[in-house]
Amino acid sequence: MQLEHFYRDDPQAPSEARLQALMRAIVIHIQFLPALRHALGWRGLKQCVAAVEGWTARVQGCAGVFGLSFEGAAPGAAWLAGSFGLCYFPDPEEPLVENFSVRAAAYTQREDYAPRIREFLRHPELQDLFGIGRLHLALRPAPLALVLGLESLSTQRTIAADGLSVVMNGKSVELVPPGGRDQDLPAFAVALPFFEALAAAVGFNVEQPPDLLSERRFPATQHFYDAVGGRRTAPAADAWHKVLSLGYGEDDPTLFPDALWPEGKASLGDLKARDPDSVPDDYRERLWWRAHTIQASHCLDKKILGIDERPPLIILSGFLGAGKTSFLQHFIEYQTQRSRFVAVIQNEIGAIGLDGKLLDYTVTEIDEGCVCCGLVGNLKVAVAGILDSFSPDYIILETSGLANPLNLLEEMVELEERVRFDCTVTVVDALNFDAAQAHSVIAADQIRAADVLILNKCDLVNDAQRQMLRQRLAALKPNAPVFETTGGDLNPAFILDGDGASSHGGRAVIHGGPIHATHAHDGLHASSLTAVRRLDRSKLLNALAAIPPSIFRIKGIVDLSDPSQTMLLQYVAGRYELSDLPHPPTAQRFLTFIGQSEDSKCFPHVETLIRAAEA
Amino acid sequence: MSEDKGKISRRDFFKGAAMGLLGGTALGMGLYSYSPWRKSYFPEVQRKLVDIGVCKSLKVTNISETSWFENAALMGDIKGAGGLLVNQYSYNWPPFGDGTGLGKGSYEKGIAQVRHLLPHDLEQAWAITEKLSVSPKNAGGFAALVEIEELDGRKRKFLLDSGWSYQWMDECFKREGIDEMLKNREIEALIISHEHFDHFWGIPVTYKYDPTITTYIPDGFYPEGLQYIKDSGHKGKVVTVKPGLNPMIPGLATFVFAVPIICRVYGEQAIYVNIKDLGLTSITGCCHFGIIQFSETAYREIKYEKDQLYGIYGGLHISPFEDWDPKYDDLVLSLGKYGYQKIGCNHCTGILCAKKFIERGYPVQKGTARNRSVDPAYLGNGDRIGYGIDV
Description:
By secondary structure, chain A is α+β, with helices and mostly antiparallel strands.
């Protein structure tokens, strides 16, 4: 067993500091890898600091939020030992609320319940209302050993001897009959999932399974109160006060620190086991037995721990100019800030793939046509190339604005061995919705294919329009979540789960039937103008105003005069944007046009307009 | 004890009550509450309000914020070497390349190639390691010059971090005159924020010009790091700063956070400067532990002018882990709460993030995107920012 890789102990520091630093190291170290923390059961973590350090976290299988806070260090020579209070803040909708005290249940329905949980250390009453037990952490420096313990009650019960009625709106409502249970919570069972996630983190960090599992039972009590202020505590025959502890590097429980055991109580029963086969069912299939077998990013047996090494692939779809690239930029930066690697496969109709050169990520560009139009071999090659050179955490397939993602779903099945198709995200242009739908059948298919819809450019439409758009989207694709964005800015955590597995993941749809409309059927056509010389600024603006409506989209890099500037031009259906490009990624000056091929005159016409603007 | 089958759902009851005539805060008050786990709970945040003294002004010069030049190459290397939990000294990156390839290196084998040349012949050392290392041209580095003006007018200089590439950092040092300042012993100390390659591995460049400079490192360095300080030709004092507050000179203190960081590193040190009539300014290398944590720590630990968090410089991470509620996982929203008056951000902050600060109207001082810094939203290489002083 080792600590070195994740915690540096300072024997001279005060015990309180060492214990909080050790707990901090245990939980933080496993958060760096999404697949790892997901596999260990973690679903999100937040630090909460007041006079002591605390944590709030979600773990798998529990709808609510756990709260952990440092209580204090216990005196002792051989062991550094201390305890952490544990709370569970149930989700306001979950049935478990009924088992908490009436006062706690009331608290869960407050409007400010959620933000208060995040700062629970500043609200002492929260620990009173939602406390479910205690975690013990102990470290013995030599010989090196660590003990993690959970102390809780099988049933945490408070009885209202005279019942409990609440007056609301002038009426008295009996919530608890006389002698009935105010709080009746299976606290130990509620705490166990958190203990499991924490123990799995310990096991991974110290790189070994527990040497000993010990469960000790002590007599439990229940609490009574009456209407006139009487309080008493009496034995509860049907409940246990339990301490479950796992020893790493120490398998003799008599050597565990005394701080683990409740003071003044004699143990009623002792369970000791050194491997999962000799424990009761409840402790058998627990992550803490196997967590140490995960070796960084390589896993001895992925199936055991449910880690899938295939990176998730997300199809990013959306009509021309909707904001796919903007969404992608935010997505990439978010992942980069967390040291995660995004590989993008991007294609653009036309000879020059523009977007790829402007973004700081690895791109394999598939030029000359659309991925959906029969270049499937290319996609497989692109994916293989990326996987062989890097180990991306995500692969995004940004389809051309004219591609139909429904055609792609079939190809996803072919790629299944190497990538895990996660979901299709479609970016919808709120401003040009009707224009896009009118121009192309594909625009509707892009929405139908989506698992997640991003309604972008919401800053450019009003509330009524947004409402109407949501209805139109729901008509095309019921049940897909819709996120409203400006500038494609959406926190990826809304669409991706902890390990990148989307909570909205679609299944690849396999059609036996005819392939879906591709852009060729729609009569859209692309063409490029290269070696564009410096353009006169005002002549260019006039030319842009004269672009015929059959040219739907223009993108390119041009040099302007007065003042001399290199600019990125983006034009969509009558609106355009010229942005300053002080560090152009390429020396080429070019424009790519996409428009209706039926109007065969429009391309030469536009070319003439642009050439006329050359200074 | 009878269990009433026709029991009212507490959720429904109180949800209804919350929406009814009673305000949410009255919900449940007066009802009994008991916890078997009740211990003496700790009181409300008690601010320690440690007096770290005060200074007149602070000037920060960005020597370099471009730790590396191609993120794809860096991430590809890290993944290829085994991922974020793997020991950084094993990557086979410069200056510890030994020719055996990505992920197969070690400090000992790497340093053996160049030790004899440190720190007097860095050109030769870098030429050798370039041939033996993976992605040598990708190495850049982070370093900043911190200049304090004391109340009595005396100027004092500190160097925060020493970057990574010997070649790149020497170029940057010469560009800003750091080499002369070090030779003249004008810089009092080298403060290393953390053991990461892009902040620490360039220390021979500092020691070439001033091998006796006092070096402050956060507690938690691994043996390789401690050995490297010696192997780099350092002849001065090494101070290991324990976790917590470390006052240095009037108005300047460092704070060490005891946290594990990616690439098998532990511990990070940041700088707090208390400026008269303005407030507290923080200087960070990477802020791996999170800017929120950093600001809260300042509030708890230090007494500062006007009780105002005034300025910030450096790389800003929101936090090392994913929040369980993405609604709150937003640096732009969170930073706004602290009321910073002057922000200079770069390095690992994220350009889009910096742009969002600007769009939001936060007081970001923009840079000039020179010397390989790519965007004016960042305070870039060669740019300066003054707190309490014009630059």
